[in-house]
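Task 17 of the worksheet. Students: predict the tertiary structure of the chain below and write it out as structure tokens. Keep your answer in the requested format; marks are given for formatting as well as content.
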Amino acid sequence: MNFFKSSIFLLAFLSLFSFSNLCFGESVSILQNSSIPKPSLKHLQELTDDTGIFEFAAYDIPDKKHAYCTEDNARALVAVLMFNRKYPSDKTAEKLAKIYMSYLLYAQQEDGNFSHRLDFQRRSHDIATEDSYGRSIWGIGYASAHPINESMRSLAKKMFKKALWRAKKLQAPRAETYTILGLHHYLKAYPNSPDVRKILIKLADSLVNCYKKNSTKDWQWFEKTATYDNAKLPLALFLAYEHTKNKEYFDIAEKTLGFLIKANFRGEKMMQVIGNNGWYSKGKKPAVYDQQPIDAAAMVEACAKAYLITDLKEYKDKMILAFEWFLGNNAAGKPIYDFTNGGSKDGIAKTGINENEGAESSIEVLISLLTLKETLQQGN
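Model answer:
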């Protein structure tokens, strides 16, 4: 074998070795920024028309039959405004932010509530669910703190105050959680808002009550079953702690995040997201499938916040492993992240990767990627 052929063989072997390490959960460092994918808005652009972002996709093609969902447009607004903070010279984010903000303005009703979705003819359907409302508050709360211009800040503030009444009536823990995210960002922009602070405390106390009602020594969780977007709940209490310095919020956030870390990582150098085909009920084992990007992204966000508050390396390491789930360090051994367009596959099923790249998955991977980059930069 001549030198040229030997070199090609060696390169191929090293590539295969590196991929095998990625697939089988060995430690794959992405600590260096050069190794982290550069965030891209390409797929969000492809999913978005002049009304908003389409909820579903067939592979990477927008599926217009189901049209638009309000909560997707709200979290898409968060994602592109995060992108705009990191890459202010890229005007794509500014254009998309205006579309998503315009969608939310159109979806907000006279009483401040939101429509749950719009069809392809832009007709409103149903009132937003509690979760959808919470994500809408998250979106306009974030726009209050990090708008593309002062006009957007003023509009977001007006919409936020108009919608705030419903926050006092929420009952679902995740709706309370998403709303806390929005209240947190609003208070960053307008810290002298006692009414908003009061609601944040009310919702955080409600999460604490859920924890006290359902947790036991070996079940440190808010409910009898851990379902979807789980890590957002401890994240919300970490944020509430930042505003109040209430030690109880911090302690419960740490306990519940620790519980999730144990359930999702199970001692491995790889994250196994709790699957939605069975979830994780007290006394049972976590479901393996179907694993959803929303949960991997939430773990990135929660561990990032925990790391920035505590400076504990364990949280930083778990944040990185959670993001590596998107890169192929997962049960399927294949990338969920689409390196060609910045989108994300819709999850891991027992039969393999769900190749569709819908709005939720692609928005969540962008939020987690931007969170990862910002946290590593702040933590250095």
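Marker's comment: The first helix runs from residue 3 to 23. The two ends are 46 Å apart (CA to CA).
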